[in-house]
Design a protein that fits this description.
By secondary structure, the chain is an alpha/beta fold. The chain has helices at about 5-15, 35-40, 60-75, 80-90, 105-110, 110-120, 140-145, 160-170, 190-205, 215-225, 235-240, 245-270; strands spanning about 20-25, 50, 95-100, 125-130, 150, 155, 175, 210, 230. A 9-stranded parallel sheet has the order 5-4-3-2-1-9-8-7-6. The protein is globular.
């Protein structure tokens, strides 16, 4: 059983929803990433989503685009990201880690080499925004051989036929994008999201996580009513952006915001139990 499946099974038994924070590796500097990862877990993260910096992050809004720029100014590479995960695993063997990024760095490293190195470092899942499941081919085989879960995005505009294709190829969980647009957008329709998540649940036994547009504790709690996991990215990265140069404040603000979301989600789950 993968770490991702084990974590979702444990949460389901406890009547809780997963909280999945996103940060970009190497932002604001490579030396802070592992500390932030541990801080996120202590604040209530169930899975850590770690962004691989890329020069053209087409699925991301300006906040995460700037995070990639800050990381790339330090020369943060895919190899560096894997080294960070390896360092994280020295103290934490249980929390699943998902890499989120784009195909170019993986293409450069090579599919087989990447998958073997990622598994050795302690990565559990891989989400490549610009790789559709129909074109996975060799990469899919390499991920399976390495025991890594391929995770895919489903958009509000995705047809039911394509949703089924995605569900058939995915492992770990499905990532449902809660709104049209890029990361950092800020308009949520919880009822509409719940309806789409329900459709996905009828197509797959995998958990469904929801991300994009979740910026406050209240929104996290609302979305946890509709999904198995709440994914939070831009709101956390914005705390980094606003405090570049003061690592202590970054850690305090990022973990503080995540802890408030964890508390709100748990309080909501207790109230509806």
């Amino acid at each position: 059983m993968s770490r991702i499946q084990a974590r979702f099974d444990a949460l389901k038994s406890a009547g809780r929803r997963a909280l999945v924070p996103f940060i970009t590796a190497g932002d604001p500097n490579p030396g802070l990433t592992v500390q932030l990862m541990h801080g996120l877990v202590e604040a209530g993260a169930d899975i850590v989503e770690l962004g691989v910096p890329f020069s053209d992050p087409i699925g991301d809004g300006p906040v995460i685009q700037l995070a990639c720029e800050r990381a790339l100014k330090h020369g943060t590479s895919l190899g560096d990201v894997l080294a960070m995960v390896r360092e994280f695993r020295q103290r934490n063997r249980d929390t699943p880690v998902v890499l989120m990024g784009y195909m170019n760095p993986i293409e450069v490293m090579g599919y087989r080499r990447f998958c073997e190195a990622a598994a050795e470092a302690g990565v559990d899942g891989v989400l490549t925004v610009d790789m559709p499941p129909e074109e996975m081919g060799e990469l899919s085989e390499c991920l399976a051989d390495a025991g890594l879960d391929p995770i895919f995005l489903v958009a509000p505009t995705t047809t039911e036929q394509r949703m089924q294709v995605i569900c058939d190829h995915a492992r770990g969980f499905i990532y449902y994008v809660s709104l049209k647009g890029v990361t950092g957008s800020d308009t949520l329709d919880v009822a509409a999201v719940a309806e789409r998540v329900g459709r996905l649940h009828r197509m797959t036994g995998l958990p469904v996580g929801v991300g994009f547009g979740i910026s406050t504790a209240d929104k996290a709690a609302q979305m946890s009513q509709a999904a198995d996991a709440v994914v939070v990215g831009s709101a956390l990265v914005r705390q980094i952006q606003d405090n570049v140069g003061d690592d202590a404040v970054i850690v305090e603000n990022v973990t503080g915001l995540l802890a408030s979301m964890r508390s709100a989600m748990d309080a909501d789950a207790a109230a509806t139990a």
